[in-house]
Every structure is written in C-alpha cells, then in structure tokens.
C-alpha cells in the first residue's frame, strides 16, 4: 500500500502539522522529516512546476484514493436542471437592481448578454474536458493534466474561494428575500455587532441555518438532490414566467429608450464583470461527470442547454425590470419587489420573493454538491488533507468534504456583506475560466513526447502574445478612463494575429475522441480575451483582497501543499514502477511456461 493512499489516514502516528491523521505523507512524519522537506523546497518546486498529471491517472489512480466509488446515477436531464438550478438565483434577483441603478442603466440587458457570451465560451471548454477527464475534480483535474501541479493548486485555492464566497453571498440574499416575504427589513433578522468594521458587522444567523439544512440534503444523496433541485427549479420557472408576463403588462417603452446607456460602454462592461456572478455555478455540473451515466452524450446536452436557457431568461428579466421603472428609481437591494409595488401590484412581491427563495435554495444545493467534489479531488491529489477525499460507502457522497466546505461558507455568510462577496467572487471565477481556456489550447496543440520542440515553442509564443495582448487591453480599459482608442489598435490586432498564426502554423496534436470545442483555437482564445477584459472592469479593492488570498495560498503551498503532493507523486511513480516489473515478470513466466 502506498503511503499516499487515503487509507493511511486511519493510521495515527506522531508528526508535525497534524501529521498522521491530517497529513499522512512522509514529509510530515516528524518535525525532523518536515525540516528536511523544507530544505528541499527549491528542488521540489522545480519538479512540481513542470510536472503534469495524465488523464488516465486522474480517472483511475487518483479517483481510487477515495475508497468507495461515487454512484453513476445522473443523465442529461439531471445535468440540465442542475445547471439551471446552479445559475438562476441571487444574481438576477439582487445584482440586477444594483448594476442597473448605479453602473449600466437599462443597458444592463447588454451587460447580461456580454457575461452570457463569456460564460458560454467557458461552457464549451469545460464540456470537452469533462468528457475526456470525467472526474469529480472539474477544472482542478483539467489544469493538473495540462498546466501542471502548481497552476492547478493556484486554481484550486480560487475554486474553493469561489464556492465559499458564492454560497455565502446567496445565503445572505436568502435572508434578505425571506425578510421581505415577512414585511421586514433584512437587517431586522441580522445582529448588529458594533465592535466590527462596517462591511462585517451585520451577523446573519438565518444564512447559517439555511446552509446547514442544505448540507444535510447534499450529504444524503446526489440523485435525491437532483430530484429536489428540478422540482424547485420548475416552481422557480413558473414564478419567472409570472414576473415576465405581469411585468411586461406594466411596461413603458420610454423607461428603456429615454436614456438607454447613461454610463456608456464603460458602464456596460463594468456591470458585465459583476454580473458574471449571476452565471457562476455551471462549472459545478462538470464536477458531476464522475456520477454521469454517459458523459459523452449527457454533459454537452445538459451544460449547453442550461446555459442557453439561462442567458435568454436573464436578458428577458433584465429587460422587463427596465421597462417597468426608470433606472434611477430601481431599488438596488430588491429590484423586482419594489418595481411591482411601484406599478400598483404590491401583492406580486410575495410571489417574487417566494420564487427568489426557491431559486437561491437550488443555487445553494448545487453549489454544495459541486464544491464538495472539488475538495474531494483536491484532497485525492494530497494538496488538501486526504481525509477530505473519503467517499461514504453508505451514502455514496463525500460527506467530510461537504461538511468542511459548507462550514467555511457558513462562517463567511455570517459576517460578510454581499457587495464585497460579489466582486471578489467574479475575480476568482474569471481567473479560473481563463486558465481552463489556456489549458484547452495546450491540450489540443501539445502532447508530451509527440509535439516537436519547434511546434511547442510556437505554441508558447502564441499563448504569450494572446495573454499579453488581452492583459494590455484590459489594463488600458481599466486605467484610462477617458483615453482614446490608440492602444486597442495595437492590442486587439496582436491577439487576432497570434490566434490566426496558431490556427495556420501550429499543427494540432490531439483530436477529441468523442466531443470537442468547435472553432479551435478561436473560441478558447476569445474566452481568454473576454475573461481577462472583464477582469479589467473590476474595482481595485477587490484585486487587493484577491492578492491577499493568493499570497495566503502560496504560503500554504510552499509550507505544506508542495511537500504533500511531491511525496504522493513519488509514491504513485513507485507503484507504477513495481506494477511494470510485476507485469514483465508475468510475461516472462508465460513465455518460459
């Protein structure tokens, strides 16, 4: 048995950093061993920076560290409803008002369309990976295979942050709409802790209770969670149809046309960056590939149909809101509720609040299922304590990972204001989606041992130009508030030429066996460009918080994650060598026999 297997977790021994139960790797067996490991940080870092996993290793060897298998019970119908349930929630009911009133005006409809296009490009990238590498790790597993352990770890930390923050934001919004349903202000149900700073002093116990109940559902059964999800989603859609029908019956075209884009193009894209929060969640569906009956068929149909439907619904809902009220009168906190009251349909606010609660509940449920599977696979790779990789034989679900992630989510939801959460969440998510698009280009154009050095260098050069031109475009957009178009005349053509060169001059090294992203390299390259461009529209304070989180991740990686993953990789390589020797011995015996 390899020392890296999760079954070693049960072996209690003395060690540092919780060694034994929490970190069973040899580097943490004692303080002496840990000291020796730290002295080797440089060589180990060089090894892991260039180390890439293999799809078969992720699908078989790494997945086997969970002990029990997750049950394959899901089809495309389940995935489609999981996708809808994961996405349509707090974003449309909360952020629409905030961005329409303060950032984009009625042009918030275009903001939703831009965010939807960006999300759809990412959906295509995720879909190909989910079919080729059908494991619970989602983008973490994809990046391990194509970009290596280090980039996968940075993404892993941001994935976990994304889910914790996203769940916390939705849970706090749940409290707001619940209060409205009972004719109360949201802060009536929150505890005001005057000793804490302004953005963290409204404590939300209801959010914690809701998260705890969601945890119980997510632990008990994935298929049961799926059934519960699409029942709630159907009810939610009925409410959405009511909102659109009743809202359009009170529409005034002048509300939309009198001042359609009061904040200009900059306001449209700034709102798009924040509203990307409303599309977050579809990547949780990719983590369910391990539990899908036929990934090659079910994942493309489920994911793409869910995203198309979601984008259309978002744009129509935003249009309805802007037709009901002038953008200056839209309420930033509960836009649809106030809009119906303003047009003389105050009774409708109860239906809207009920529908919003249903939508937020499904978002929390699907998020709980997805985030636990991310942590499970990260723990399988020993970049998180491997005790979180265990799958319950009774429930067929990762119970420990589910409880751990939702506990962290509950703590954040208890303290933190929604405004901080939504901006930080968008940065983390856009960053991850950009990396997945880069990884897809690497997957299509580079295979170790087959791609020539010349073609590899061409690929690297194209990726560097695509990334630099995208970053330059986003930076100029974000920093030059009243600048001209001179910089774009250089940066956008540079992106175009690099992508065209990649298509014409670098041969593809791999063709997907079952389903692939169309129009490669253009769609992944466009995904990189749009995601980075939207990052340039996010405020500076959010980037400061993101930087602090990244520094914390690097500290954990250099002191713990690097050494745990290094030991695990070496143990896996030793196992493979032993297996090869044994196979050779058997063949020799067969021949001599």
Describe this structure in words.
The chain has helices at residues 31-39, 41-50, 55-62, 76-87, 90-104, 108-132, 139-146, 149-181, 205-220, 222-248, 253-257, 264-275, 282-286, 295-324, 335-342, 348-380, 399-415, 418-445, 453-479, 486-505, 522-535, 540-592; strands spanning 191-192, 202-203. With 593 residues, the chain is an all-alpha fold. Helix 6 (108-132) crosses helix 21, helix 8 crosses helix 17 and helix 15 runs antiparallel to helix 16. The chain is globular. Residues 1-14 and 585-589 have low confidence and may be disordered.
User: What is the H-and-E element order?
Assistant: HHHHHHHHEEHHHHHHHHHHHHHH
Q: Terminal Cα separation, in Å?
A: 30 Å
Describe the biggest sheet? 2 strands, antiparallel
Oligomeric description of these chains: single chain
Helix/strand/pairing class, anyone?
Answer: mainly alpha
Q: What is the rounded Rg?
A: 25 Å
State the helicity in percent bands. Answer: 55-70%
What best-fitting shape do the alpha-carbon axes yield? globular
Strand composition percent? under 5%
Counting DSSP H or I runs of 4 or more residues, the number of helices is 22
């Amino acid at each position: 048995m390899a020392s890296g297997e999760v079954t070693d977790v049960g072996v209690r021994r003395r060690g540092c950093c919780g060694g034994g139960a929490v970190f069973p790797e040899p580097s943490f067996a004692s303080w002496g061993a840990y000291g020796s490991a730290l002295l080797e940080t440089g060589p180990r870092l060089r090894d892991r920076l260039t180390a890439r996993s293999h799809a078969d290793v992720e699908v078989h060897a790494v997945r086997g560290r969970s002990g029990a298998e997750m049950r394959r019970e899901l089809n495309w119908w389940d995935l489609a409803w999981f996708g809808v349930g994961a996405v349509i929630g707090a974003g449309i009911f909360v952020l629409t008002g905030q961005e329409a009133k303060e950032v984009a005006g009625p042009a918030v409809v275009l903001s939703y369309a831009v965010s939807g296009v960006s999300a759809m490009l990412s959906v295509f990238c995720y879909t190909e990976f989910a079919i080729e590498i059908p494991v619970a790790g989602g983008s973490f597993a994809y990046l391990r295979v194509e970009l290596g352990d280090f980039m996968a770890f940075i993404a892993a930390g941001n994935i976990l942050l994304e889910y914790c923050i996203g769940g916390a934001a939705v849970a706090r919004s749940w409290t707001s709409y619940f209060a409205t349903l009972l004719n109360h202000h949201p802060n009536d149900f929150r505890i005001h802790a005057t000793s804490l700073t302004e953005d963290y002093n409204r404590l939300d116990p209801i959010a914690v209770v809701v998260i705890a109940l969601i945890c119980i559902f997510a632990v008990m059964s994935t298929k049961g969670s799926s059934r519960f999800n699409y029942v709630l989603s159907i009810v939610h859609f009925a409410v959405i149809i009511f909102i659109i029908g009743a809202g359009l019956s009170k529409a005034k075209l002048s509300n939309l046309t009198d001042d359609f884009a009061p904040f200009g193009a900059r306001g449209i894209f700034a709102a798009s960056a924040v509203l990307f929060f409303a599309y977050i969640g579809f990547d949780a569906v990719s983590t369910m590939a391990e539990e899908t009956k036929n990934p090659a068929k079910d994942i493309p149909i489920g994911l793409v149909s869910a995203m198309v439907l979601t984008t259309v619904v978002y744009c129509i809902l935003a249009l309805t809101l802007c037709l009901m009220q002038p953008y200056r009168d839209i309420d930033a906190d509960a836009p649809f509720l106030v809009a119906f009251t303003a047009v003389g349909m105050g009774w409708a606010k109860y239906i809207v609040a009920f529908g919003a609660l249903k939508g937020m509940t499904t978002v929390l449920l699907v998020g709980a299922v997805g985030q636990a599977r991310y942590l499970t696979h990260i723990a399988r790779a020993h970049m998180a304590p491997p005790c979180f990789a265990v799958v319950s034989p009774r429930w067929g679900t990762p119970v420990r990972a589910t409880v751990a992630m939702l506990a962290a989510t509950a703590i954040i939801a208890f303290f933190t204001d929604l405004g901080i959460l939504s901006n930080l969440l968008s940065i983390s998510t856009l960053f991850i989606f950009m990396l997945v698009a880069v990884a897809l280009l690497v997957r299509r154009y580079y295979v170790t041992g087959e791609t020539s050095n010349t073609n590899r260098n061409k690929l690297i050069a194209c990726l560097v130009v695509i990334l630099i031109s995208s970053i330059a475009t986003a930076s100029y957009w974000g920093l030059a508030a009243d600048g001209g178009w001179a910089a774009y005349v250089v940066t956008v053509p540079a992106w175009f030429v690099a992508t065209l060169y990649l298509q014409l001059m670098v041969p593809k090294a791999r063709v997907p066996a079952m389903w692939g992203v169309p129009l490669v390299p253009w769609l992944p390259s466009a995904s990189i460009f749009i995601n980075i461009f939207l990052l340039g529209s996010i405020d500076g304070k959010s980037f400061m918080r993101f930087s602090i989180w990244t520094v914390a991740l690097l500290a954990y990686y250099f002191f713990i994650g690097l050494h745990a993953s290094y030991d695990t990789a070496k143990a896996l390589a030793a196992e493979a060598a032993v297996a090869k020797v044994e196979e050779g011995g058997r063949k020799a015996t067969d021949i001599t026999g």
